[in-house]
Design brief:
- The complex is a heterodimer of chains A (670) and B (79).
- By secondary structure, chain A is of the alpha/beta class.
- Chain A has two domains: 209 residues, P-loop containing nucleotide triphosphate hydrolases (Rossmann fold, 3-Layer(aba) Sandwich), CATH 3.40.50.300; 361 residues, no CATH class.
- Chain A contains 29 helices and nine strands.
- Chain A has a six-stranded mixed β-sheet, sandwiched between helices. A two-stranded antiparallel sheet of chain A has the order 6-8.
- The longest helix of chain A is centred in the middle third of the chain and has 47 residues.
- The N and C termini of chain B lie far apart (28 Å).
- Chain B has a six-stranded antiparallel β-sheet with strand order 1-6-2-3-4-5.
- Chain B has a single domain, classed as Roll (SH3 type barrels), CATH 2.30.30.90.
- In chain B, strand 3 and strand 4 form a beta hairpin.
- Chain B is 13% helix and 38% strand.
- Chain B contains two helices and six strands.
- Chain B is mainly beta and 79 residues long.
- The longest helix of chain B is centred in the middle third of the chain and has 6 residues.
- The chains are: A alpha/beta (670), B mainly beta (79).
- The interface between A and B is medium-sized, with 35 and 27 residues.
- Strand 9 of chain A pairs antiparallel with strand 5 of chain B, so a sheet runs across the interface.
- Bound molecules: guanosine-5'-triphosphate (GTP) and magnesium ion.
- The site of magnesium ion has 4 residues of chain A, from helix 1.
């Protein structure tokens, strides 16, 4: 392959090479959205096409291409959303995906979406994109943030210098998008084609003016901040406030006795629940006002990435997520749906009207499609994943996660990864399968392998996490810590060893830190909605199939044989009752299914606390579910995938056995 | 060794928090990647944080860098 381009190419794989040959491609009417990561391409795309794609406030959200149609005066124009790129040579898998579109699909128009705040960087990319010789339009997005910072861009002048149309937009509100839509038929080539870009970039930067933001804004911030502090201070005197302000002495004594009879961890969670329940309606509007305040957001963004306030913020964030997922989701909502609706009404009702026999067993028996499959999915897993998705979407959109990358960079580096790998790991808490695809944002093959293996090994998906929180909160904080401690230490340990055994290098940690942005509720609910829909589509059939499979095995008298065959491991090594084998069996199908099964067993009182802890650990470390296995094969190839899966299986059982032995030998009471 | 104008340049790791500097040289293979984030010879930067990662601001963008990368960026302090 010969390249006439000036771009230097330093890559792992010859297919990374993008030939900048200035071809004159035939116009196929296709429009491609291209630009740096996190500039708003996906918002523009979903606004233009009304198609839903994931949008969040961290670089590397989109890792594959999405096609959609724009209606332009009755005609449709095909448009593509791509992963973010930094330049026109690919250094990671997601960039490669985007650049392939330019190369292979030969679009009629490139729409470069850009963060108007960073014009220098934008124009460097413009200069590189111009080398493709494809007509372009430049969209200066995030004009709202620009204006707030007092940056004004003269887009007429810029347009003249570039020879292509330049539009200013605020994608999130839709401002300027009508103008962009009209330009989808424009076919102007950038005058930069073939020029030395650097000096040109500096020239074009003349179009930017700055002014200092006003003083009034600062004053406003201080007032809001003060209100916030006063409110938070008041939380510490909650009890007095209830007593004195609202004249509710009984409540105050109620708290008093609660605090004196409970242990410390219970007080903490109890206090948090109370605070949330009572003060959320008061706090929310204030938090809201503060969230809308950009001065505060900026300061919060700084705190969240520093070790000191950062760790505190992390702890508070985690306990809030715990409240939402572990308490509200896994306890309250599961209680209502499971005990109240499924075991309370639906199952007994169906059991009453279906005559006993084959159909009865099939639908509402021990392994009934409804009594087990559907009820696990809807009553146990759904509440947990929905609450988790809400919390997670909020974190994604706020811009908090990149800060967490910074805090965890050092730890991850010891594991052969670096801060960027936090994103797939945290995403893995939502769904390991999707997260495995996100490992594309990692640069080297080694990092992708390590991250994929760790995801398969020990990152629990949201339902599992909820079940862990839900079950252990019924035992003790110690049990929770043992489960998390074991799993986390195994992740670190395996990562540490693997990074030394696996050949190759890790890439270096360079991450753009987006500003903290106040999440838009509409986007959070939309995202949660789509994720829940996706969960139901994906999970419901599998839950039903799982129940069906157990039912068939049971009818054929095979289930007891499987259970007997696995007894040496399940009962002997792990010390679990032999019925747990069927939990692991459905865990193959989906991990959350297994978790729900364990949840059910423990609620029936069939497990003691050590068994619960061991069961949870093994199930968390256990083999990836079918969907994830398929994605691993796709991303890593069959050979490596089989290696990963068999390693994880043996390792999970080994650690479970070890834990069981340790807990018993040292007589640890949980 | 050619060190002309950048003779008294320091690696970025020598800068204190809030200090401003101009980049005079970037060594190593990360140079290309850093350039696409807006860090190249001639850009003005400010160090915003040094631990756990270096945080460097250019224009309106904040970049997190691990120390090994920061060490390869050579700068001259600005008053
Ligand atoms: N304030 C403001 N925020 C915006 C604007 N456009 C997008 N955003 C926010 O910027 C973040 C990134 O948006 P995305 O559409 O996911 O960005 P992307 O370019 O697709 O990012 P990648 O898929 O990671 O390459 C989201 O949090 C958006 O809500 C805008 O015009 N103004
Ligand atoms: Mg995107």
């Amino acid at each position: 392959m010969e390249s006439r381009s000036k771009a230097t190419v330093l890559l792992e794989d010859p297919s990374d090479l993008v030939v900048l040959d200035n071809p004159a491609p035939p116009d196929n009417g296709l429009v491609v959205l291209v630009g740096q990561a996190n500039v708003g391409k996906s918002v523009v795309f979903s606004r233009l096409t009304s198609r839903y794609v994931t949008i969040s406030n961290f670089p590397g959200t989109t890792v594959e291409i999405f096609r959609g149609q724009v209606d332009l005066d009755g005609e449709t124009v095909e448009i593509i959303d791509t992963p973010g790129i930094n330049s026109t040579y690919a250094s990671s898998e997601d960039e490669r995906v985007a650049l392939r579109v330019l190369q292979d699909d030969r679009p009629g128009l490139i729409v470069q979406v850009a963060d108007a705040k960073n014009l220098r960087r934008t124009l460097r990319l413009t200069a590189q994109l111009a080398q493709f010789g494809i007509p372009m339009v430049l969209t200066l997005n995030m004009m709202d943030e620009c204006e707030r910072k007092g940056i004004y861009v003269d887009s007429d002048m810029l347009s003249k210098k570039l020879g292509i149309p330049v539009v200013q937009t605020v994608a999130t509100t839709g401002t300027g998008l009508e103008g962009l839509k009209k330009l989808l038929r424009s076919r102007q080539r950038c005058s930069l084609n073939g020029h030395e870009p650097l000096q040109w970039v500096e020239d074009a930067l003349e179009s930017v003016q700055r002014s200092t933001p006003g003083e009034a804004e600062k004053l406003d911030t201080r007032t809001k901040w003060f209100t916030f502090l006063v409110l938070f201070g008041s939380l510490l005197h909650l009890e007095n406030y209830f007593g004195a302000w609202f004249g509710l002495p009984t409540l105050a004594t109620g708290f008093q006795s609660f605090f004196t009879t409970q242990g410390f961890p219970e007080i903490l969670t109890g206090a948090l629940t109370v605070i949330l329940a009572f003060l959320l309606p008061v706090l929310l509007p204030v938090l809201w006002a503060i969230g809308k305040d950009h001065g505060f957001n900026e300061r919060f963004g700084v705190w969240a990435r520093q070790v000191l306030p950062g760790t505190f913020i992390l702890v508070v964030t985690m306990s809030l997520v715990f409240q939402l997922v572990g308490v509200l989701g896994a306890q309250t909502l599961v209680g209502i749906l499971e005990e109240g609706i499924f075991s309370g009404y639906i199952t007994p009702f169906l059991q009453g009207i279906i005559p006993s026999g084959f159909v009865y067993d099939l639908l509402v028996g021990q392994y009934g499609v409804i009594s087990m499959g559907i009820s696990y999915a809807i009553a146990i897993v759904l509440p947990v994943v929905s609450t988790f998705f809400i919390a997670f979407s909020f974190l994604e959109d706020s811009g908090y996660l990149p800060r967490l990358s910074i805090l965890s960079d050092r730890l991850l580096r010891a594991m052969g990864l670096h801060g960027k790998a936090l994103l797939p790991m945290v995403l893995g808490l939502g769904c390991v399968t999707m997260a495995t695809m996100t490992t594309r944002i990692l640069r080297s093959k080694k990092e992708r392998f390590v991250a994929t293996l760790l995801l398969a090994l020990g990152v629990p998906c949201s339902a599992q996490l909820g079940v862990i929180l839900g079950i252990t909160s019924g035992i003790s904080l110690k049990a929770l810590l043992v489960v998390f401690g074991t799993v986390a230490s195994q992740l670190v340990f395996v990562g540490f060893v693997l990074s030394r055994l696996y050949p190759g290098q890790r890439s270096s940690f360079v991450l753009e830190v987006p500003p903290i942005r106040c999440p838009v509720w509409k986007n959070i609910f939309r995202k949660t909605y789509w994720r829940v829909v996706w969960f139901l589509k994906e999970a419901l059939p599998l839950f039903a199939i799982g129940a069906l499979a157990l039912f068939v095995l049971d009818k054929l008298q095979l289930l007891s044989k499987v259970i007997a065959a696995s007894e040496p491991v399940v009962t002997g090594l792990l010390g679990l009752p032999k019925e747990t084998a069927s939990v692991f069996l459905i865990g193959f199908l989906r991990r959350d299914y297994g978790a729900a099964g364990l949840f059910d067993l423990s609620r029936q009182g069939q497990l003691d606390s050590i068994q619960i802890v061991v069961g949870l650990v093994v199930l968390t470390l256990f083999v990836p579910c079918i969907a994830n296995s398929l994605v691993i094969v796709k991303e890593q190839g069959l050979r490596k995938a089989l290696g990963i899966i068999s390693f994880v299986f043996v390792y999970a059982v080994g650690i479970g056995g070890l834990l069981n032995w340790l807990l018993h030998t040292f007589g640890i009471v949980l | 060794m050619k060190r002309d104008s950048s003779a008294d340049a320091d690696p970025l790791t020598k800068l204190k928090t809030r200090e401003r500097a101009r980049i005079v040289r970037i060594e190593g293979e990360e140079a290309m990647e850093l350039a696409s984030f807006g860090l190249y010879t001639g850009t003005e930067i400010q160090v915003k944080q040094r631990f756990p990662s270096y945080i460097v601001q250019t224009d309106e963008a904040e970049l997190a860098l691990e120390p090994a990368v920061a060490r390869k960026i050579f700068v001259l302090r600005l008053k």
